[in-house]
């Protein structure tokens, strides 16, 4: 191919590199949309953003996009999901507040991806905080889900076909203190890492200090000028998405097979061949049981670059499995 594809999202670049190694012709149909065509002999496949392919039928992503429908389908298939309610109007927040008072609570748009509009409230006591979170979530959708916050760590399971190919633990955006520099200065330094960029063209995203980070720090009476002690870890967000500056740590070999099978069951339940399953696990050394894990989200367009270039861990070369499954 003659075109420069280094401006594409990194996940698409990775897939193209593997395709070229396999002598597959690659045509970039829309650079901005990361839309490509693969050709080899008489076989033609269209791929958008590395993981949107002909492998998944139209309805599977629509189910995963709708968090309420996803929960219903998973629950009917005997898969653990958090309890919660759906709000159709922001005004409903006041009457539902008592259901979550004193509890760790997650507020998120019904249809979302990449963690957009998701806010976590610890030991909810302020109705103002609750209403603000609901109002922010309504900026992304016309329905909002409020759920119990499940204790444990969040892991991203990448399912391709009938197999969990890779597992990551995503750590929320953070800095480690040195006793000298402020949070802002530490963020500036961390963002100098050549692996960090903007717009998914690098393995990790740069940390942005915005309203969400400011409000999160205020809960612990900190601000951007706070100077953490030496080796003090300061988290800047509750959500752990790599897209918001989080760190990705490979856990593929550490996670028990039982959890990998649950991720595959979840993908099968919604009819997905390529799926990112976000599972909260309290103790990864404990075999799966109802009290130890819960699926909080399925993602219809999971990024693959973070499994190939984790902040810590080995390259899982997941693009190979995608091309295998496509028949190349």
From TrEMBL:
Keywords: ATP-binding, Ligase, Nucleotide-binding. Transmembrane segments: none annotated. SMART domains: GARS_A. GO terms for molecular function: ATP binding; D-alanine-D-alanine ligase activity; metal ion binding; ribosomal S6-glutamic acid ligase activity. Coiled coil: none annotated. InterPro entries: ATP-grasp, ATP_grasp_subdomain_1, Dala_Dala_lig_C, GshAB_ATP-grasp. Residues 71-327 form the ATP-grasp domain. GO terms for biological process: SOS response. Pfam families: ATP-grasp_6, Dala_Dala_lig_C. One of its GO terms (cellular component) is cytoplasm. PANTHER family: BETA-CITRYLGLUTAMATE SYNTHASE B-RELATED (PTHR21621:SF0), RIBOSOMAL PROTEIN S6 MODIFICATION PROTEIN (PTHR21621). This is Uncharacterized ATP-grasp enzyme. The lineage of its organism: Bacteria, Bacillati, Bacillota, Clostridia, Eubacteriales.
């Amino acid at each position: 191919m003659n075109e420069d594809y280094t401006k594409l999202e990194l996940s698409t670049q990775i897939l193209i590199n593997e395709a070229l190694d396999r002598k597959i012709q690659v045509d970039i149909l829309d650079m901005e949309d990361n839309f490509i065509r693969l050709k080899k002999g008489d076989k033609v496949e269209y791929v958008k953003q590395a993981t949107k392919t002909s492998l998944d039928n139209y309805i599977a992503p629509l189910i995963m996009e709708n968090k309420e429908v996803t929960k219903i389908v998973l629950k009917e298939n005997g898969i653990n999901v958090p309890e919660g309610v759906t709000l159709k109007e922001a005004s409903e927040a006041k009457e539902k507040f008592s259901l979550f008072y004193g509890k760790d609570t997650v507020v998120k748009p019904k249809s979302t991806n990449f963690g957009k509009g998701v806010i976590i409230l610890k030991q909810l006591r302020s109705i103002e905080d609750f209403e603000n979170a609901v109002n922010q979530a309504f900026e992304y959708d016309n329905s909002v889900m409020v759920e119990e916050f499940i204790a444990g760590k969040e892991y991203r399971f990448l399912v391709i076909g009938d197999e969990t190919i890779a597992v990551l633990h995503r750590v929320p955006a953070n800095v480690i203190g040195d006793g000298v520099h402020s949070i802002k200065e530490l963020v500036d330094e961390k963002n100098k890492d050549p692996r960090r960029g903007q717009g998914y063209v690098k393995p990790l995203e740069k940390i942005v200090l915005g309203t969400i980070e400011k409000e999160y720090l205020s809960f612990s009476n900190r601000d951007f000028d706070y100077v953490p002690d030496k080796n003090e870890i300061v988290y800047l967000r509750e959500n752990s998405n790599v897209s918001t500056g989080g760190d990705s740590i490979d856990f593929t070999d550490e996670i028990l097979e039982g959890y990998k099978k649950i991720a595959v069951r979840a993908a099968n339940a919604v009819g997905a061949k390529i799926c990112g399953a976000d599972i909260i696990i309290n103790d990864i050394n404990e075999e799966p049981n109802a009290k130890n894990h819960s699926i909080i989200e399925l993602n219809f367009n999971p990024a693959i670059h973070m499994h190939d270039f984790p902040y810590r861990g080995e390259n899982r070369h997941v693009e190979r499995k995608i091309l295998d499954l496509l028949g190349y």
